[in-house]
Amino acid sequence: MTTKEKIMLEAEEQFIKYGIANTQMKDIASAVKINRRTLYRYFPTKDELAFVVEMNVMMQISEYLSNGIVDLPDKYSGYEKVVHYFNNVKLDYIKKQIKFTAEFDRYFVDEYPSEKLESDFVESLDPKNDKLYSFIAQGQEDKSIRTDITTIEIYQFLSQSFISLFQRLLLRENHLKYEFCDEVDFSKLYKDIILQGIKNLDH
User: Fold this and answer.
1) How far apart (Å, rounded) are the C-alpha atoms in residues 23 and 185?
2) All domains in the chain, ordered by first residue
3) pLDDT tens string for the chain (203 positions)?
4) What distance in Å separates the CA atoms of residue 57 and residue 70, rounded to the nearest whole number?
């Protein structure tokens, strides 16, 4: 790995373990075995480092969710591709990344650290770069997915609800089993309810 990649990996680990607010840049530098001056050449502030890590984490989640679905047969409807997309999800593979997004969302509630980071961050979230968006659009075109809701509305609802639900499930996984949730298969329910909700029942 490059020094920058080592910094980002270590920062992600410490941000999850201690929280962004409680993580010190000197501790990240020490763990990577570089001095703070070198660290600040790569990332001038902790906030900038956290934003870059978040963009990388979101890319990892997107790549994982898209893994294995790039070569789906053309005969599949858009709805069938969305079904395949969600059947492909195994939460255990992205637990760490989801936990980081929860810490990031909790910490950053005000302004972006810089205009450049704001631009890069927003660009990284462009729905048109996500396979799920194209599957939904195809489904609405072939009438397998309901069209009374726009593509962007369906996409954002699925994306935001997925992240927020599983953030909570992962953060409280040691407690929910004692809170009358031990017999609930949230992953299956989420998928089943979501898929029924977007399906065009007249098709």
Assistant:
1) 34
2) 1-44 (1.10.10.60), 45-198 (1.10.357)
3) 899 999 999 999 999 999 999 999 999 999 999 999 999 999 999 999 999 999 999 888 888 877 766 677 788 999 999 998 888 877 778 888 998 999 999 999 888 888 998 999 999 889 988 889 999 999 999 999 999 999 999 999 999 998 999 899 888 888 988 889 888 888 889 999 999 999 998 86
4) 20
